[in-house]
Structures are given as structure tokens and as C-alpha cells.
Amino acid sequence: WSSPSVDHDIIMKYMFNPQILNGAVLTVVITVVSMLIATILAVILAVMKLSPNPLLKLVASAFIGFFRGTPLLLQIVFWGYLGIIYPTLTFGIPFTNIVFIHGQTSALIPSLAAGIIALALNEAAYSAEIVRAGILSVDGGQMEAASSLGMRGGYTLRRIILPQAMRVIIPPMGNEFISMLKNTALLEVVAVLELYTQATMISAQRKEVWPRFQRDHSASKDVRLRQEEGVSMSRLMVDARSVRKSFGANEVLKGITLTVEQGQVLVLLGPSGSGKSTFLRCINHLETINGGRIYVDGDLMGYRQVGDVLHEMKPGAIAAQRRHIGMVFQRFNLFPHLTALENVIEAPIGVNKEDAKDAKQRGMKLLERVGLGDKFDHYPSQLSGGQQQRVAIARALAMEPKLMLFDEPTSALDPELVGDVLNVMRDLAKEGMTMIVVTHEMGFAREVADTVVFMDQGVVVEAGSPAQVLDNPQQERTKAFINSVL
Question: Looking at residue 359, what is its pLDDT?
């Protein structure tokens, strides 16, 4: 500060010089525009790198590796002096006479545009890893919950995943913004008149030193396992035929065949690892199957059949099928950044395109139905486990499903909270909702189920009415399990 080489009068003289102010404004504009483009590209690259498609992964990895491994200054020089290599540029459809843009490179990509392109592409490579880390930080159950509501991938990413990932993404992206602000000084090499360049020009012109800135339920109805063909498809809600599922060399489902009629409740029992939850997830195609067929209300789930060959549907078609199948998860999987009411109305508005006012009115009625009308503005973190699970049931019901799947809905709850959730499920059964429930609640199974199915090691060991399976089991494995839990 006291150095004789620093002339404070000169500094104050040019601090608000129009050239300096214009340079400062341009620096901010370049930073904001470049960062906006980089962020959009970073999201695309992160999604590509997380994609199961190997080609998309390869392209994203190559982009990130190249632009992170090449000096930024070299990239700026390349784009700034591209006209030397390619004096003219033509954009059109290759091998045709169709041309959209043609002209001199220097006119199509002036120095300012070249600088923004270089900064944006370079920053996108770094920011992509930040965005990818943010997406990976979101619990995987959030994607499953969104998928079970019929949300498509893009909508889920925009409305569910990215808002939650922001808590991880924003802090380092703030640092990247500051770094970008500093890096604009490098644009001096392509004569972009940002702040540093303007200051350097004044210093050269004045030969003065300028400090450089850093840069309804009926018990009489009977659900039967499907033993033969010819059961009327119009009466079946779920028709599973020889369903197989493997994870690598581990065959989890070994030819499951069963049916559920409309308005019936089927309870799946079995030890951990028996395949109950996996089968449940196969019904709405959260898990793909390796063999067999699953029909829901007469429609083949997740596949279209051409001759004897099954072809998996596109994600949009699968999402459309899931809209009619509600699912309640063991760990609730509520969207933590949304209130109870917002959780309930998100899919009706975003997926079914319902009017927001109508959706809110119906959402409030559903929350009142599950005993949470006074908690509509509470976030999941402000609710008990039992309350969260009841919100999850209301969220699934908001899509007006014809089938409800419950994956051990009370296993994560304290004992005193289990009753409230089971009461809601009992009411649904009395109203005639078709339900498949994976649970260890024997009292619920005895009271509500039409059919109890006992599974072990990926096969159906025994099935029948609650009285048959729970009170008079025929298989020794079933007897051992019942004795262990009662």
C-alpha cells in the first residue's frame, strides 16, 4: 500500500473510467453466460455418464477427459484463431446440398463468442463431475418412488433428483463461478475487451502501472394360484406366468406363477431373501424379468410381444403403465424437498396434467383420508415414520391406481406407529382396492387377506386362504416359518 511504485491518485483516476466499467460489465456477462452454458452441458454430461448405455458413457468420458486434460489457454487460442485453420464454416446436412449457415469463420465465431465457447466447454468438463456427485448423493429410493408414480426420466431428474442434489452441487459450483470470473482474464489473448484487457490497454496507453485483478372388500371372494389357462382375463388384475429373475448368477425368482383378481388382497410371506420384494418390483417393472410374463389388467407389463419374442418398451410407455399401479415402499421414499401436500400432488400435476387447484383440493382430501389433514404443510423431516408412510399411501392413491403394491410398509416403523398405517390399509381393502402386500404382520394377513402365499428361495411353497396357510400349513417349510414368527 505504501510502495512508491503504486500511484493512488492514478488508481482513483481510472477506477471509474468508462473503459474499466465496460470491461467489468463484460467480464460479468461472459462469466454468467459461460457458466450457464457450462451448467446445462454439465447436467447432460453427468446424465450420460450415469446412463447404462455404454456409448453415452464413452462419449461423456471422452469429452470430460479431453477438456480437463487440455490447458484452458490452448483451448481459448484454438477457438479464437479457428479462422486460420478453417477460413469458412458451413453448417448443414452432410452429403446433401442442404446448408443452414455458411460464412467466414471470423464472422460466425467472433472473439467474444470464441471466448465464451472455450470457457463453457472447459468448465462443463469440470462441473459434470460435480453434478454427477450431486445426483449420486440422492437416495436411490427417490428414483424408484418417482418411477412408481409414472414419472419419466427427464421429469424425475428436473423435479425430484436435481432439487435434492443442489445441496451438494451448489457449494462447489460457487467456487467454479469464482474461478470462471478469474479465468476471463485469459481472453486477452483473443482480444476480448473484458476487465483485465481494458486495464492492460489503459496501462499501455498511459504508461502507468495498473494493479492487475486476480482472477370394497368381501371375504367370500377367492384368489387362486393360476394352475391352468382359461381364467377370464377380464377378472384378473395380476396374472404372473413362470416369472424368472436373476441377478448375475443368483436366480432370485424361479418360475413364479400366480394370479390376483380384481378387488382382492394377496399377502406374500417368507423369510428375507425369498424373492418377495423382487417379485413385487417386477410387477411394475422396477425390475426387469429374465423369463415369463406379467400381465396387469390384461396388459403385458414392460414389454411388447412380436411373435414369440419380447421387446422391452421405451421408458415413456413403461411410465404410462406405471401410472395405474401405486407402490408404497419400506423406507417411505417421500421427496424431502416437498411438503406433504406437494408430495401428493406432484405426479397428478406433472404426469397426469391435472389442474393445480383441483389437484390440491383432491390432495387435501386424501391427506384427511389418511388422518393427516392438519399436516399438509409439513416436510417429511417434520413427520413421524408412521405419518410419512401414510403420506406415501396418499401419494400413491393420488394417481387413482387400480392396483396397490405394498413392500413391507411397516417394517421400518416403531411398534406404536404400525397400527395407524395398517388401519389405512384395512380401509383400502374394505373399499375394494386390489392389493399385493409383502409383510410379516400375521394379524393383518389373517384379517384382511383373501390369499396368503408363502415363498422361499424364489419359489411358491404354499398358497391358500389365511386359515389354510396360517392355521393349517401343509408344507414343513411353511410350518417352520409360521412357528418362528408367531
Answer: 93
SS3 at position 285: coil
CA dist 178 and 35 (Å) reads 10
DSSP 97: S
pLDDT of residue 10: 67
pLDDT at 199: 66
pLDDT in tens, 415-458: 777 888 888 898 999 889 999 999 888 888 888 999 999 999 99
Convert 182-226 into a string of H (helix), E (strand) and C (coil). Answer: HHHHHHHHHCCCCHHHHHHHHHHHHCCCCCCCCCCCCCCCCCCCC
Prediction pTM value: 0.71
Cell 462447489 locates to 172
- φ, ψ of residue 250 in degrees (nearest 5): -90, 110
Q: Among candidates 408, 404, 146, which has minimal Cα distance to 277?
A: 408
The helix/strand/coil state of 8 is helix
pLDDT (average), residues 266-294: 92
Q: Of 126, 134, 140, 141, which is closest to residue 163 (Cα–Cα)?
A: 134
Cα–Cα distance list, 24 to 15, 16, 39, 176, 278 (Å): 11, 10, 22, 19, 59
Q: Which residue has the higher pLDDT, 260 or 213?
A: 260
Q: Give the bridge partners for 405, in sequence order.
A: 327, 436
Give me the amino acid identity at 322: R
How far apart are the C-alpha atoms of 92 and 57, rounded to whole Å? 27
Among 18-27, 150-159, 299-308, 363-372, name the one with the lowest average pLDDT. Answer: 18-27
Spell out the long-range contacts of 53-60 with Cβ–Cβ below 8 A and sequence spacing 24 or more.
60/128
Helix, strand, coil abundance in the chain, percent, nearest 5: 55, 15, 30
Question: And the C-alpha cell for 405?
Answer: 403394491
Residue 110 DSSP SS3: coil
